[in-house]
UniProtKB/TrEMBL annotation:
Protein name: Antitoxin
Domain of life: Bacteria
Pfam families the record matches: DUF433
Length: 79
């Protein structure tokens, strides 16, 4: 497991190496879907067990990715 941003990690054995919230199997992509689908922080925490700080970290990671500021992902190995 490699931390690529605060609270965001990748592991080739977890969710096909997609960025996830540290300590979970919830992807950044899923978190963005929750938010754009209209869920608020409290609903996300209750439904998925992740905190507001985790949601914010996912949004920040996605924004950095779109700006081209994301740290290089580690070389993934075959699972």
């Amino acid at each position: 497991m490699k931390e690529i941003a605060p609270k965001i990690v990748v592991n080739p054995k977890v969710r096909f190496g997609k960025p996830v919230i540290k300590g979970t199997r919830i992807t950044v992509e899923e978190v963005l879907g929750f938010v754009t689908g209209g869920m608020d922080y409290e609903e996300i925490e209750k439904e998925y067990g992740i905190k507001k700080e985790d949601v914010v970290a996912a949004i920040n990671y996605a924004a950095s990715f779109l700006k081209g500021e994301v740290i290089k992902l580690p070389k993934l190995v075959k699972v």
